[in-house]
């Protein structure tokens, strides 16, 4: 294995590219699946106060200073770590660095879900210290193929699901149960807590009332718990998430107002226009035109 660079990138042409990217199952913005993150300088750091998913990070090139809650460690090419959902994360790379991230809520396969649950007994006797696992053969070969496919533009939802299943097969086949227990220690046997519940389901609903109904909690209990966990009222937090989704959609060159209205749960374009003018001071068309151009309305 090359100590400096785990995966060598080779140019590969994806056949029938237009047919691939216009498929309804093509993923433009990866929320669950694999994504390559490249850094060209230390200033290109990454920080999330609340991680939206569980992140399995594979360090492919360079060194990284990683802070996860109370832990601060330095990792290098050829290592992998897990960042649990809802935790604090900051990554400061070396000047030239690259990593691969798997964003996931839980394993796809029921067998893999059961495995992590059964390993919880083994984890009880372990002392977790946010250490990495080495990327060994054949996992390094798997990552090489995965990176090659992603670089070619292959990003079908079925591809991401298939590769995630294969990843867990390789982990179970070539790593000991002790190693797997240590890697997944932060999430092994963990029941869904309130903050995890909100983070996982907020993108599936459009109103706080829908989230309340899913929680099976009393109204007062829900709102009090929400304020305790997130520090702000539920309605204010949901508005922040909605605005973040709007910003994210505005960067999509194929986006149109009609799709935004449908995806975001607005009853009409008129209602969406009123919302945008109230919260951003601009109409949806002005926002799209500006975000697609060189000038940005927001820093």
From TrEMBL:
This is Helix-turn-helix domain-containing protein. SMART domains: HTH_ARAC (SM00342). Signal peptide: none annotated. Keywords: DNA-binding, Transcription, Transcription regulation. The keyword Amino-acid biosynthesis does not apply. Pfam families: HTH_18. SUPFAM superfamilies: Homeodomain-like. Residues 192-290 form the HTH araC/xylS-type domain. GO terms for molecular function: DNA-binding transcription factor activity; sequence-specific DNA binding.
